[in-house]
Write a structure and sequence with these properties.
By secondary structure, the protein is of the alpha+beta class. It has helices at 2-5, 17-26, 80-83, 89-94, 115-124, 179-184, 212-227, 233-248, 256-268, 273-287; strands spanning 31-35, 39-40, 97-100, 107-112, 129-132, 137-142, 148-152, 155-158, 164-165, 175-176.
């Protein structure tokens, strides 16, 4: 990864997509041409509508063995003979930029699409190599994971089975892929219920926690745990909700006010109201409440 991390530094910038692609391929980064709209070229006639059954093996990068460039990210290659072949020549003549397969290069790109997403990343993720984009930034880490779109507002993950646009080598030292990024792709069960106060068990009776201060301390500690999270905020919110419900969910002492305090703490860390609602409902479902 040292070669990849420093690629482009001290080298003259290439003026054509093909020249850039060959430089990247030499550094071990699988590349493909992108046409107008920054999208891959469509499948060739032989493979139109995936008639070929999805060749090449979509778990790996190309090179594609079809008559022309084909299969989007899976055609990405480091082979200069393929890149400069007559079969690829028409695509390079139409190409407006170069794409690359991060997963094939052992990397993950966190695509931050707006200033709010950048602010969140600076507060949450470890510093790494950063590349400016038209609307935001690409944060590039060393390591591979499944690709996911919209893991949070303005944030996509591009790694295995995906492509990213090459926008230059960027600045900074590439860090190892952190658990905080991997956790962004972890989804709780998609049960969605409206959050509500839990009612006391049949027969009523005094709360087993005896004094309101016991519950207040528990809610305050939960708020603090969420507020102090520096990474994996999604997972922290869910686990905190689960802990609160484990301790207080069956005696009927939780109220809408308590729940609102937890939701407010989570939203202050950038979580959406919908995610809060889903995380609360999923925690209740897991506990059988």
């Amino acid at each position: 990864m040292t070669q990849r991390a420093s690629f482009g530094e001290g080298r003259p910038a290439q003026t054509t997509p093909l020249g850039t692609a060959l430089e990247l391929a030499f550094a071990g980064v699988p590349v493909l041409p992108l046409r107008q709209g920054k999208v891959p070229f469509g499948n060739c006639r032989v493979c139109a509508k995936n008639a070929c059954g999805g060749r090449p093996n979509m778990k790996n990068a190309g090179p594609c063995q079809c008559p022309g460039i084909c299969h989007a990210w899976a055609a990405a290659t480091t082979d200069p003979d393929v890149i400069t072949s007559p079969a690829w020549a028409p695509a390079w003549r139409q190409a407006v930029c170069v794409g690359y397969h991060p997963g094939g290069a052992g990397m993950t790109v966190v695509d931050l699409d707006n200033p709010a997403a950048i602010t969140w990343a600076r507060e949450t993720l470890p510093a790494t190599r950063t590349v400016p984009t038209t609307r935001g930034e690409h944060w590039i880490y060393q390591g591979v994971m499944p690709s996911h779109n919209a893991v949070r507002p303005g944030v996509d993950i591009k790694s295995a089975m995906a492509y990213a646009r090459w926008l230059g080598p960027g600045t900074g030292t590439m860090a190892d892929l952190p658990e905080a990024v991997r956790m962004l792709a972890v989804k709780e069960p998609t049960v969605r219920l409206t959050p509500q106060a839990l009612t006391a068990p049949a027969g009523g009776g005094e709360c087993r926690h005896r004094t309101p201060s016991y519950l207040d301390r528990g809610i305050a500690m939960a708020e603090e745990r969420i507020t102090e999270a520096r990474s994996a905020v999604h997972a922290t919110v869910y686990r905190t909700f689960l802990a609160v419900l484990s301790a207080h969910g069956r005696c009927g002492c939780l109220t809408d006010t308590h729940i609102a305090r937890l939701f407010t703490a989570a939203q202050a860390k950038g979580e959406t109201p919908r995610h809060c609602t889903d995380a609360w409902a999923n925690a209740r479902t897991r506990l059988g409440l």
